[in-house]
Amino acid sequence: MDGSLVAGVDSSTQSTKVVLCRAGDGAVVAEASAPHPDGTECHPDHWWNALSQVRDLLERAGAVAVAAQQHGMVALDGAGEVVRPALLWNDTRSAPQARDLVAEFGGAKAWAERTGSVPPASFTVTKLRWMAEHEPGNARRTERVMLPHDWLTLRLGAPEPVTDRGDASGTGYWSPASGAYLPDLLRAALGHDAETPRVAAPGERAGETAWGAALGPGTGDNMGAALGLGLRPGDVVVSIGTSGTAFAVADEPAADPSGLVAGFADATGRYLPLVATLNAARILSAAAAMTGTALDGLSALALAAEPGAGGLALLPYLDGERTPNRPAATGVLAGLTTSNATRENVARAAVEALLCSLADAVDHLAAQGVRPRRTLLIGGGARSEAVRALAPAIFGTPVTVPEPAEYVALGAARQAAWVLAGTPEPPAWPAPPATQHTSDHTGEEIRARYGALRDSAPEI
What we know:
Blueprint: E1 2-11, E2 15-22, E3 28-35, E4 41-42, H1 44-53, H2 55-58, E5 61-68, E6 74-76, E7 86-87, H3 95-104, H4 108-115, H5 124-134, H6 136-141, E8 144-146, H7 148-156, E9 162-164, H8 165-168, E10 174-175, E11 180-181, H9 183-190, E12 198-200, E13 207-208, E14 214-215, E15 219-220, H10 221-229, E16 235-240, E17 244-248, E18 262-265, E19 271-277, H11 281-290, H12 295-304, E20 313-315, E21 332-334, H13 343-367, E22 374-378, H14 385-395, E23 399-402, H15 407-421, E24 434-437, H16 444-456
Helix pairs in contact: 3-5, 5-9, 10-15, 11-13, 12-13, 12-14, 13-14
C-alpha cells in the first residue's frame, strides 16, 4: 500500500473500471477493468466478483472510493443477504408503479418539492413498489435497501451501511433540499419500514479496507463524473454512454414539476440538476448494425451525408424512453423516400437524432435556470468523429471535448484523495486536456424536424 496513491472505482452497468492515481495531482498510474453481465437486473455478487478481479490495483492505494450506477435496488434481508438480483436503472418494468406513486402523494409538483424529482421507472422507490406488488415474499424479507455503490463500500470494509447525498438523491425517498430521508415514501413503496444507509458528509472518511486504506463514502456515477471533471457552477456536461445525460453543477436545489429535470445533489455539498435519456450510445450501435458497419464506419458514413440526412429523421426511442417519459415507445424513422434511402443518410439521421435528444435535455436544464458557461461532451459516444463534428451545430454552441478518460472512476479517486487530505474542498487536480469544436452550420432546421417528429409520434 502506498499512501501517495488513491484508487477510484466505477461500477457501471457494463463493467467495473479502476484507476490508480497520484493523490497530489490525479495523474493516472495504472488502470484495469472487468466485465459485468448484460441485462436490466444483476446479482450484486457479479459486481463484487468483477471488483475482486482488479483487487491487486486497489491494494496499492492508500485510499479508495466507489462510484456506481445510480438507482439500482439492492434489497437485503435481516442477515444482510441479497433477497433478489438488483433491479437496475435501465429496467422499466416499474413504470406503472411510478405513475401510481406520483398520484398517491399529491402529483408531480408535490414530489418535486419533497424529493427534487418526479420519479420515473428508473428510480429506486418505484422498483420497491414493483417488488411489493409482484414479489410480495421478497418484499416482506427485505429489511434494508441499498444502492450499488453503498453495497460495494460496505463489502470493502465500511463498518456500517453508508451512502452519500449524491446517490441518495436518486432513490426517490431522500430530499436534497432538507438532507433527510423521507421514510413515508419508502414505506408506501415497500409496504413496511426498512433500514437505509447513513448519509455521510462530503469528503468524510467512511471506514477502512481490509488492507488498511482509507475508504471514501462513494457516490453515484454522474456525481463521480462531475467530480472527475472538476465542474464548477455554469459548466454543463453532455455524457453519451449507455444512457445519455446532461447535467450541471448548481448552488441551489432544483425542483422541476414537469419531471424532466431530476434535482439531484452532487458529491461536494452542491447540487446536480440532471436530465437523463434511456437511449444514447446504443443508438449508434443499432444504426451501425442497420447499415452493416462498425462504429467507425458509421461515423464515416454520417460525415459523407449532407446536414439533415436528405430529409430523414429518426426518433431514437429504441428501448422506450425516460426523457420524455415514454417507457413503451419504439423508434421511428420518418421521411424515407427512394431518393434518400442510403446508408449515409441513415447513419447521419442516427447521429443527428442522438444529438437532438441530448440538445433537448440541455434545454430542459436551461428552463430550470442553468446558464451554461461552457458545454463539455464526454462518454464513449464522444469518441465518434461524427458526433464531435455535428454537436456544435445541433447544440448551437461551441463544444469542449475533454480527452477520453474514465471520469467517473477519476471522480471516485479524487474523493479518495479528499478523504486523505481532510480539507473542506476536494483537492484541485489539473483540468483534463481538451479540444474545442465549432461549426459553420446551424442545426435549427434539423432540430425543428426532429421536434415535429417527437411531438407527433405515438407512444408505440
